[in-house]
Amino acid sequence: MIYTVTLNPSIDYIVEVEDLRLGDLNRMKRDLKLPGGKGINVSRVLKQLGVQNKAMGFLGGFTGRYIEDWLHEESNSSDFLFVSDDTRIN
Fold it and tell me: Mapped to the 3 state alphabet, what secondary structure does the chain carry?
């Protein structure tokens, strides 16, 4: 069993634009929100490789629940401590 610890997890928010023009209005073509942070990323890859692991760290608020729900949907084992502040978004 491998344990990963993410002290400062995040939701990685990725947007795609067709043609970025500085100083102009740019509309996103699509977006993607993924759980992030080094330990969480390692746990997700280990799971894909079939290696038993558990993601641990601190989560908070609706953003923390989003990360926990995403990991649960992927069947990733986790044991996060919930705090009062929201987990960050990148």
Answer: CEEEEECCCEEEEEEEECCCCCCCCCCEEEEEEEEECHHHHHHHHHHHCCCCEEEEEEEEHHHHHHHHHHHHHCCCCEEEEEECCCCEEC
Identify the three-state secondary structure at position 18: coil
Stretch 51-75: mean pLDDT, rounded? 97
Q: pTM for the complete prediction?
A: 0.87
Structure tokens at 22: 């500085």
Answer whether 40's CB lies under 8 Å from 66's CB. no
Which residue type occupies 20?
A: L
